[in-house]
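BUG: 3D viewer hangs when loading the predicted structure for this chain

Environment: internal workstation, default settings.
Expected: structure renders.
Actual: progress bar stalls at 90%.

Input used:
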Amino acid sequence: LGEVGGVRAVKARATLEASLGVAVKQFRRLPEGRQTFPHSIEVNNEPYFGGEWRKRPYERKAYERIEEYVPAGAAADEGPVAGKLRTGKSGGCDGSGCQRNNLQVNKFFGGRIETDHPCLSRNTECDETCPCDPSICPNRRVHGGSVIDYGADLEERDVWGFDCYTRRNIEDAVIECGVFGAGVPIPSEKDKPARDLCGPEAIDRTAAFVDDVLMPAINANKTERPWDLRTTLDALIEGNDGPGVKEACRAIRDRIENSGLNYFRIHPKGCGVICVKEGGIEKATFVSRYLGEVYLSSRWFELQDAIKKFNPRQALNDFYNIVLERPKDDPAGYDVLFVDAAYKGAIASRISHSCVPNCEANVVSSNGKLSIAIYTSRHIKKGEELSFDYSCVTESLVEYREAICLCGKERCRGSFLSLADGSAYNDVMNTHHNFLHRNAILLKSCVEPVSAEDRNRLARFGFKSSLLGFRGGDLPDWVLKWLSYTLQYIEEEEKILPDSLVAKYPHIYRSLEQAKIEAQGVRDQRIQNLAITVDKVKLILLQQGEDTHPPLRPLTERERIDHLWTGRDSFARRFFRDKDFSSKLRQAANSEDPAARAGLSGVDALRKRLEDQSRWPASSEEARGLLAEMAAHLCTIDERRGCRSFKSVADLIKMTARAETLFTLNKYKSVVMPDIIKKKHIQYMDNSQSTTTLLKRLDNEDFVPGTGKKYNQTFLWGQLMYWFKQTIYEPNASLSADRRGTISLPDLESAVRTYTEKDRINLRKTLSESPHKMWKTGTIWSFRNPNKVYGSPWLEAALREPFREIQIEKDLQAIFS
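Structure tokens produced before the viewer hung:
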């Protein structure tokens, strides 16, 4: 996601300004004994870290220093984790690029390294296949060790930062004093901010002062009040003779005195890493491996789900975890692991986030193993804090809003998280991969064979043995087919999304190229989520013994006939034995209208045919035809009598008659996994009194009782429906809601209730505009679905075109005519 940082910055800023701008304005209204503020503060709408101002460092979490990755999760996960950390990638350079002291890297971007070195350009270190001298080759540091002396060159210490709001106020104070411009004060006025008048050189010099002078000085502040910016400013005024430094510091200090310290908050960030090496650290220097406890992605989310269920008040957890994505060009292919360095790790795990970092994290193949390696992306000066972009993504708006970034950089995005549920992306998904499409794809995957084209598509995306391996072979064919279909959608989305973004969000995406970069980032996130879902599928299937059947099963022809007509609880039998419908038919029998009586005779003829086994339909098509005939008779009765006794049931019968494909659920065994939360995972949380008492009896590595996750019979179906979201604790519950009316038509018995013309018009409108959305609650319809048979006309449309917008106008015309 590194490539799309600029685009995400614009979107993050816009979202945070919208959600937090009101809070900032309310804060400015607080009485502080002043009538006016500088105009620049009045109009400052940058993201603001509100709430109680913490003025002391956070408690440092002790962690165990380790030299290698440690498999975590269940005991059975140790082998799979170790296998996924192995790589078949190797070196193979001719040694000519290995004679320099330092790596010659042009830039790091999106997890890739731009360099002329043939090994490093593939994110691979030199090894025994390379003729270069190991004692001087700079591309062997991940395996051989960093040139950095962790005790002498780097220092872990409490670090401080500020949000975009404070940064803006600092910069405006400096710009308006004119020290880095023409030397003449430039006050900001309405519609004439000083930063628009001073020229780009003054803006750049001001930014350099904040980044290179002020921020290091804040982290070097050894007073008892580092949160008070005035103490840092006083130290700079006293001891720094750099050009313009004293004048800039005095301008900021004057602004604080005139406006209040609350507008210049300095916040603790936790433990960070500072460069203390004389002369600093050169670009492209290997700093450290990001080590920690390694989880299979399924286990990681099982742990996160359990923690959130155990303590739902804990919205935003500490971010010591990072994703390790296996390279797609590895012989075993792509996969996803999670590294948690909260309790075991190396110095890299204490490096802070920055939206404009000086380090980069890259997955590197070294000596047959994969590692997350931290490299410097530019020269780092003495006193400067090391940082890299966490590139963390959340699906929680609560987490996103709480994750105010304190990196203090000029191009700060406002949040150190990116929000994954952006409506911009969902526009394409809602038309080309909505709930109906996803069920259609899964149903087709349960019956169609895997083709050579499917296998080629999987290989093209790097889906090979690491991800697809299962019990010594591959995952079941239905999983491979479903993966291929879903990857096909991801390919389609990447083509469609850029034009959609430019058309709907021109204020964010100002060019098609910018939108294409964003679409690539979306694709990468989709692929990661798909791989995580595959690992969850494996977890469920491994608990099922040898039975790895598909989650859905189409009804046989005989079963379809029984469901519609001949079965004991068939649709037709349920209609005729329902007392309310029988009562309405008896009332209609009093009609003297010939057409109405003819309709009644038609319904009665169908009833007699149902009782005569020799006249039962020979095919499901014939059974659907009989239902359509029944609906026509009921409509005639209502029309001739001028009433609405059968309007609702007639509409429902017509819907049922137009659902050709019917399917049911292949249930899996419900399983409860072993306890997964350990004391160390929750001991720093705001726990209840009973939990605190329990934790006192446990050691850090002891499991907390009752924290194993339960997977019920329909979990897998739900997970496959929401493969692009990983934070739904019970996807089967979301599935149960979303299938109301979409793939599960209403209960016949609910059609006896009052059904107004307005109800009918609203239903048709909803189906026309959003056939993929669940029917509204509070209507006449119920959805118990006692036979657990699914299908609808709208699903038929998705089965016909699984990657196109759903077209059902002909169906609606036939149903509601």
